[in-house]
Amino acid sequence: MKVGLLLPLSDDDGSGTPAWPTIRDLALKAEAGGIDSLWVYDHFFFGAGEEATGIHEAWTALTALAVATERVEIGTIVLATSFRNPALLAKMATTLDAISNGRLILGLGCGWHEPEYTAFGYPFDHRVSRFAEALRIIGPLLREGQVTYDGTYYQAVDCRILPRGPRPAGPPIMVAARGERMLGLTAEHADLWNTAWFGMPDERLAGRIGAMRAALAAAGRKPSTLGITVGVTVTEADEAWGRPGAPAALRAEPGAIAAALDAYAALGVAHVQLDVQPATRGTFAAVLDALARHRAGR
């Protein structure tokens, strides 16, 4: 099982929005400590009005991480397809996959935070329908290098990706999904599926995996063809900030984190993404200690 870490980008990840040197240093510490992947989330701000908190732009940060690191996979958890034209996004992903020498995981979702859409001038209606159309452009462009598509919301006419990236089928597509329609789109288009947020595995996860298997069966696809990824919240506080399921978050203690990693591996999870709050050298050290324990079999 692969283990990844979310990097801090926002005001809410610690004491103010982290500067790039801080983000880079945490990334390099994690890479040196054996972490498999580094992740960023895609927002313009959290909250609304005078209460809003800031965050760096995801794709710019991810590009800088591609250059700063050498081994780890890099990914988005997840990129809102409605923030970027889907054909352009496929082009961006192909270029970043080349810059990173084939280390990109393209995590995609339909977005959820309406104040961002209003502030930046993006439509918030029909988000799942728009997402479905975006996938029908992004997928063929990454995997085949070309597409023609005429939808209600997006069009692409004899669109081609030139030059092609380092991997013949492009970077893997990971979709974050929970509802029935989104699970169906995941079964149709994705290489990886992300469900979040959890502490130890619980009945919510079992129910979601069962629903995903039903969606795969409806699509005529074997469960083994879709990798399961799980977002796990780790916190020093009594309750984590801003994540569904956060009250069940893991404590930032190596033994507890290692036990959770063991449990997810036993379930056949392909990849765990740890969201550590606050994201500091100390909490990252606890994760790396836990990772070593997990891999050593304690």
Identify the CATH architecture: Alpha-Beta Barrel
Which runs of at least 5 residues are low in confidence (pLDDT < 50)?
A: none
Q: Approximately how much beta-strand content do the residues carry?
A: 15-25%
CATH homologous superfamily title? Luciferase-like domain
Q: Figure out the total of helices.
A: 9
| CATH topology description | TIM Barrel
CATH class: Alpha Beta
Spatial ordering of strands, largest sheet: 1-2-5-7-10-11-12-14
Give the beta-strand count: 14
Number of domains: 1
Instruction: Note the run of SSEs as H and E.
Output: EHEEEHEEHEHHEEEHEHEEHEH
Mean pLDDT metric? 94
Percent in helix = 25-40%
The shape, in one word, is globular
Structure, explained:
Helix 6 crosses helix 7 (203-218). This protein is α/β, with parallel strands linked by helices. The chain is globular. The protein has a single domain (2-228, 238-295), classed as TIM Barrel, CATH 3.20.20. Helices cover 39% and strands 22% of the residues. The strands form three sheets. It has an eight-stranded parallel β-barrel with strand order 1-2-5-7-10-11-12-14, surrounded by seven helices. The protein contains nine helices and 14 strands. The protein has helices at residues 20-32, 58-68, 86-99, 114-120, 127-144, 180-189, 203-218, 254-266, 281-295, and strands spanning 2-6, 37-40, 45-46, 53-54, 73-76, 79-80, 104-109, 146-150, 155-160, 173-176, 192-198, 227-235, 250-251, 271-277.
